[in-house]
């Protein structure tokens, strides 16, 4: 984290005041005068005007309405990664992923303890999507998706049958689907099995957490109630 952000996020002073302390050479990192461009590492010892700066680690939980074109990775080597996009001043990471072209709800946190509960298929956590396809939807198509689909898995070089799921038609080209699995590009591959192509895909819910009216590209913190249910 950049030095001025580190100082201000500790609650010691505002970011602007932190910059003044740095300019006045009253900020020491590991006993040496620090510059504005310094990035604080985990083991650094920071002092401001002879006061030691300490951080109380707080768990961070947020959701982002991910736009198309953003890659769900924390790797700085990949252009357009989600961490650069959100530009949060503390270390966070995405829980799971959405394909680069898929939009909608994704969780970000610094709490690794919730990841397994949300990502393991055996935990049957619901994830809901709104899907638009390239041709008119039929009753047979909705029924076939609901019953489970044999889709090819390139990793195992064999077929996997998807779990039965709830599918509701919204209009001639759009449907809502709730999954409890997390197979790679699952919805796109399910549709392709019946000669449909997905033209737009948006995740709108994970468990009890809903995207709601959050604008594309915007994020918000989870409410206390949402966090409590997430951990229950």
Automatic annotation (TrEMBL):
Q: What class of enzyme is it?
A: isomerase
In terms of CDD domains, this protein maps to: S4
Q: Does the keyword Nucleotide-binding apply?
A: no
What GO biological process term is on the record, naming one?
enzyme-directed rRNA pseudouridine synthesis
What Pfam families does the database record attribute to this sequence? PseudoU_synth_2, S4
List each copy of the RNA-binding S4 domain by range. Answer: 1-58
Keyword line: Isomerase, RNA-binding
Task: Look up the signal peptide feature and give its range.
Answer: none
Provide the GO MF annotations for this entry.
Answer: RNA binding; rRNA pseudouridine synthase activity
Report the EC number(s), separated by commas if there are several: 5.4.99.-
Instruction: Give the family from UniProt.
Output: Belongs to the pseudouridine synthase RsuA family.
- This protein is called what? Pseudouridine synthase
């Amino acid at each position: 984290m950049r030095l001025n952000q580190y100082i201000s996020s500790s609650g010691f002073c505002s970011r602007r005041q932190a910059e003044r302390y740095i300019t006045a050479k009253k900020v020491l990192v590991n006993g040496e005068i620090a510059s504005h461009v310094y990035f604080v590492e985990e083991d650094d010892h920071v002092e401001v005007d002879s006061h030691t700066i300490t951080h109380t680690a707080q768990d961070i939980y947020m959701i982002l309405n991910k736009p198309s074109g953003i890659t769900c990775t924390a790797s700085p080597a990949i252009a357009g990664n989600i961490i650069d996009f959100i530009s949060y001043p503390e270390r966070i990471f995405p829980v799971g992923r959405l394909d680069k072209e898929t939009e909608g709800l994704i969780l970000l946190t610094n709490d690794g303890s919730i990841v397994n509960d949300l990502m393991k298929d055996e935990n049957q956590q619901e994830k809901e999507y709104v899907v638009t396809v390239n041709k008119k939807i039929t009753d047979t198509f909705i029924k076939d998706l609901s019953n489970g689909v044999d889709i090819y898995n390139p990793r195992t070089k064999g077929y996997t049958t998807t779990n039965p799921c709830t599918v509701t038609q919204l209009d001639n080209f759009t449907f809502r689907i709730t999954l409890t699995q997390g197979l790679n590009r699952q919805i796109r591959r399910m549709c392709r099995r019946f000669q449909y192509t997905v033209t737009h895909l948006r995740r709108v819910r994970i468990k009890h957490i809903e995207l709601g009216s959050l604008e594309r590209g915007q994020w918000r913190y989870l409410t206390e109630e949402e966090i409590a249910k997430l951990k229950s």
